[in-house]
Each structure stands twice: as C-alpha cells, then as structure tokens.
Design a protein that fits this description.
Elements: H1 6-9, E1 12-15, H2 31-36, H3 38-44, E2 48-51, E3 55-56, E4 68-72, H4 79-91, E5 95-100, H5 110-115, E6 129-131, E7 150-153, E8 158-161, H6 176-191, E9 196-199, H7 220-230, E10 239-243, H8 249-255, E11 265-267, H9 290-303, E12 311-312, H10 322-325, H11 333-345, E13 350-354, H12 374-385, H13 390-400, H14 437-442, H15 447-460, H16 462-466, E14 468-472, E15 479-486, E16 489-496, E17 502-503, E18 515-519, E19 529-530, E20 535-541
Bound molecules: 1-O-alpha-D-glucopyranosyl-D-fructose and calcium ion.
Residues 61, 64, 101, 144, 164, 200-201, 245, 282, 317-318, 375, 402 line the site of 1-O-alpha-D-glucopyranosyl-D-fructose.
Keywords: Glycosidase, Hydrolase
GO molecular function, one term: alpha-amylase activity
InterPro entries: GH (IPR017853), GH13_cat_dom (IPR006047), Glyco_hydro_b (IPR013780), Malt_amylase-like_C (IPR032091), O16G_dom_2 (IPR045857)
Length: 543
C-alpha cells in the first residue's frame, strides 16, 4: 500500500468567506462569522477548510487581487481574528488551508506602486514589463477576463502583463528577489499555524510572455521545487494543492510526486471542460456525454495510482452548482445531489466540498444588474457588443457564471437566509425558503446527513482511501459504476445518471458477502434496476 498521509484521509471544505456568514450586519461574510459556524463543520466531519483569500485586497476580483499578503482585509476582520480562527478550528481538529495567489498581486500592492515609479526603481522588475508604443501591445496575449493582457503605463512608457484583470499585474518569477519575498511571506504564515495552502493558477508562474507561453512554461517545475523546498518542506505535514488547469496525468505526476518535492496534490480540470464546445471556452455549451465523463475520471483514477494524488471536486467558487449542472435541480434535486456525491466520494483522492454543496444549493437566474462577478460582467458586455442575442448570453451566464457559486450560504428561512442581519452583497437565491441548513439538519434523509455519512465511511474504511480503482459496466450508457479494492476488501459504487429507471445486471459483480453501506433510496432495492439518479455503495469481503 502506498504512503499514508493525513491529507489523503481527510475531506476538505471550501469556504468563500464573502458569502459564508456575516457577523456584523454589513452584508459581507467575515472571519468571526466562520468561527461561529465551526461547530456545524465539525458536525459534518471535515478535517480542513480551504479558505478563499482573506488578505488585504481592493476586491476587484474578490480577494484574488492581494495588496498585502501579511494582513487581513478589514472587511473580513483582523489578524487576531485569523489567529482565533486557526486556533478555534484546531480545537475541533480542523486545519486551515490558505489560498496563495502568487501569479499576480493587486495593482495597489506596494510592490506595484513602486514598480510604476520608474524603470530604475528596485521593484520595477517585480512585474513583467515590455517596451512598446502606445496602442500596439507587444503581442496579442489576452486576459482571461477579456481584452488584451497588456496595459500601457504612460509615465513609464511600457506595458505590463496582466493575465487576469488590469488590477492584477503578473509577478515576474524570473526575478529571484520576487521569489525570496514570497517565500518569507509563506514561512510567516506557516509559523502562524496554518495547515497548508491552495496555490492559485500556479501553472502560470513559468510563463514566457514573449513566446506567448502562459501555462506549463519551461521553468515551472524548477520554480515550484524551489518554492516547496524553501517553504512547505519546512512546515509540518502541510496539505498543498495546486490549481493546475493545463495538467495531464503526466504533468500531475511532477506536481504531486510522492517524494514531496512539489505539492501534495493537484486540482485537475479535465472533467470540468466536458460540457464546453471544443476549443471555445467555458461559455459555449454542449450537453455532458456520460461516456466521456467515465473516460476522463477513470483515466485520472488509474494513471495517478501510486505516482500522484488526486483532488476530487465538482464545485468551487468559479464553477456552477453541480446539482444544476449534471444533476437535476427540480424533481430529483435530493436524489441527484446525493448520487453525484456518492460517485465522487467513493473515488481515490481527497474530496473537496464547496460551501452549500452539502445542502444541495442550486444555480440562480438573475437579472444582469443583480450579478457582481468581474468575469461574468465582462463576458456580458463583450457578447452584447458583438451583437449576440441577449437571451443566448443570459443562458450561458445561468449555466456557467461564477456568481452561481457565490450567492450567500442558506442557513435558514429567516431574513436573508440567516446569512446577514443587513443586506447581502449579492442577492440570496430565492429558493432559500425551501433549501437551507436548518431543514437539512432536522431531516435524517437530507443531503447534509448523506454527506456526513460519506465522510464517516471514508474514516471507517481504508479501502475508500487507498483501494485500487476499476471501472465496471464500462459500456453502460446511463450508469457510472466502479469498484475499489484493497486486500480482501472491496467497495462497489453504482450511480444512475438518468432521471428514469434503467436496467443493470448488478449480480455480475455482487458477491454473496455484499453489504449495502449507503444508498439514496431507503425502500427495498430492486435487484437489477436503478431508479432515477439512484446511487448505492456496497462493501464486499472476497477471499
Ligand atoms: O482561477 C483561475 C482561472 O483561470 C479562472 O479565471 C477560471 O478560468 C475562471 O474562473 C473559470 O470561470 C483562479 C481563481 O480561482 C479565480 O477565482 C481567480 O479569479 C483567478 O484565479 C485569478 O486569480
Ligand atoms: Ca461582515
């Protein structure tokens, strides 16, 4: 069996602080709010919280534009609040995973403020500058949020690179001073007792702007190995996870080499692109093909075996709600949310739950003026200017907009879903009167309790953490099923992705020792069929 690690055995919960719990009525979630909900998270059973950025930031990209890495934004609280959160979470055996945004800073970061003062300023070379003539950028690199990735600074007579918004200038990792400053900042956080780090768009730091190489640049892994050696490897058993959009299994084996030279694990996104039209990006939609999903997830399950470690996720703060995306957020909301959870939590890797997923929270359909996200608003403007029909643009936003994930957490059916006593910074999903935590906690058949059970099963059965994966019924058009095997123990997971009953010769794989561990229907099981979105997990002991 492979090396045992706490971070392989745990389940991580992602908090988007703005939208989790407000404690002072200003409509924005904060650290004191999170502290007040730690008992809830302990009850759920998670072992770590990935906290989206809470450092000082002008909030142009809601915290992914940092102006001081070593202070907390007053909107979220103070450094003392952060220390209290680390301490209070620790008392409940929950570690805090910080979000490190190292590819870029805010343009309001003192480094950039200095960098803009002159070409001979010692901080100038902290960012990526290119000469040019106003109006003709060095090349046609574009920003993820739309438009050119180059911004002209008249005082300097140069362009700077920003792969995201103009308020997010890219750091120059080729400059060793940048790297050293970053390492001391990270070590300062390690001293404060954080449990690990999630590394934002880390695949971009090896970029070669002149050659229009952004992801997976030639020096990427050299930088990461240095970063890891100077920081993570000095800390105690940290969980480190890279956000690695362009990773293949081969690349993931570098990122999460078991020798610990880079990160613990990767977020890979291959499955996330499966409902996008080939080569067109996230907004141009096509239906999910279950066969492709089986292929992609199975490939990652088998190819990383013993050589790298997966993160398992459906959601994060950039992605639509999975129950609306690949489940059914109407009649079968509860069944399909549980089915999708079963599929993921039975796999090899560390599962991540995004806030509200455990309640079955859904996407929203707002008016354009009710949205807040910079990416979404840029997209709307661009497509409208190009003359796309508005209803088409809105369909894309309903399906893929990042604000789907960012509506306030639905705690109860009181004012603003119990998120704030004031007015939330973004409209609460109107379905909060039905979908909320209070209902979930009272109801033993709720999605919340189902997630609790999945988390508990992972603690009780080593085979769920370390077992070998095998896809079964590979040709079945409606069912995603697999086994996990460790010594004599075997888990079998079967999931129906259709909103109707389908046939399945389950007996082929079910041994006489089979015991049902968990299922999303509570009444009698038919032998050879699965009802709409039905999911089951069996345990077998084979000799
Ligand atoms: O996201 C990386 C990224 O590439 C996203 O912009 C992604 O393409 C998009 O959100 C898909 O909708 C990370 C963070 O998770 C995101 O919130 C930040 O906006 C981005 O980096 C910049 O820091
Ligand atoms: Ca607040």
């Amino acid at each position: 069996m492979e090396q045992q690690e706490w971070w392989k055995e745990t389940v991580v919960y992602q908090i988007y602080p703005r939208s989790f719990q407000d404690s002072n009525g200003d409509g924005i979630g904060d650290l004191r709010g999170i502290i007040s909900r730690l008992d809830y998270l302990q009850h759920l059973g998670i072992g770590a919280i990935w906290l989206s950025p809470v450092c000082k930031s002008p909030q142009d990209d809601y915290g992914y534009d940092i102006s001081d890495y070593q202070d907390i934004d007053p909107m979220f609280g103070s450094l003392e609040d952060m220390e209290a959160l680390i301490h209070e979470a620790g008392k409940r055996d929950i570690r805090i995973i910080m979000d490190l945004v190292l590819n870029h800073t805010s343009d309001e970061h003192p480094w950039f403020q200095e960098a803009k003062k002159g070409k001979d300023n010692p901080y100038h070379d902290y960012y990526v500058w290119r000469d040019g003539i106003e109006g003709t950028p060095p090349n046609d690199l574009t920003s993820t949020f739309g438009g050119s990735a180059w911004e002209w600074v008249p005082e300097i007579g140069q362009y700077y690179l920003h792969l995201f918004s103009v308020k997010q200038p890219d750091l120059n990792w080729a400059n060793p001073k940048v790297r050293q400053d970053i390492y001391s900042m990270i070590n300062w956080w390690i001293e404060k007792g954080v449990g690990g780090f999630r590394l934002d768009v880390i695949d971009l730091i090896g970029k070669e702007a002149d050659f229009k190489i952004t992801g997976n640049g030639p020096l990427l892994h050299e930088y990461i190995r240095e970063l890891s050696k100077e920081t993570f490897q000095k800390g105690k058993e940290l969980l480190t996870v890279g956000e690695t959009w362009g990773a293949t299994p081969e690349i993931a084996k570098l990122y999460s080499n078991p020798d610990g030279s880079e990160f613990s694990m990767v977020f890979q996104f291959e499955h996330i692109g499966l409902d996008e039209q080939e080569g067109r990006g996230k907004w141009d939609l096509k239906p999910l093909d279950l066969m492709e999903l089986k292929d992609v997830l199975s490939k990652w399950q088998t190819e990383l075996k013993g050589e790298a470690w997966n993160s398992l996720f459906w959601n994060n703060h950039d992605l639509p709600r999975i129950v609306s995306r690949w489940g059914n957020d109407g009649e079968f909301r509860v069944e399909s949310a549980k089915m999708l959870a079963t599929l993921l939590h039975g796999m090899r890797g560390t599962p991540y739950i995004y806030q509200g997923e455990e309640l079955g929270m859904t996407n929203v359909q707002y008016e354009i003026k009710e949205y807040r996200d910079i990416e979404l608003l840029r997209f709307y403007k661009e497509r409208m200017e190009k003359g796309y029909p508005e209803h088409e643009v809105m369909e894309s936003i309903y399906a893929k907009g990042r604000d789907n994930a960012r509506t306030p957490m639905q705690w109860d059916d009181s004012h603003q879903a119990g998120f704030t006593t004031g007015e939330a910074w973004i409209k609460v999903n109107p379905n909060y009167t039905e979908i909320h935590d209070a209902e979930n906690v009272q109801n033993p058949d709720s999605i919340f309790h189902y997630y609790r059970q999945l988390i508990q099963l992972r603690k009780d059965h080593e085979v769920i953490v370390y077992g070998d994966y095998e896809l079964i019924f590979p040709e079945h058009p409606d069912v995603f099923a697999y086994t996990r095997t460790l010594h004599e123990n075997q888990i079998m997971v079967v999931c129906n992705f259709r909103g109707e009953t389908v046939q399945l010769p389950l007996q082929e794989h079910l041994s006489s020792s089979a015991k049902l561990l968990l299922a999303n229907y509570t009444d009698m099981l038919p032998d050879n069929e699965l009802r709409a979105y039905e999911a089951r997990m069996y345990l077998m002991q084979n000799n």
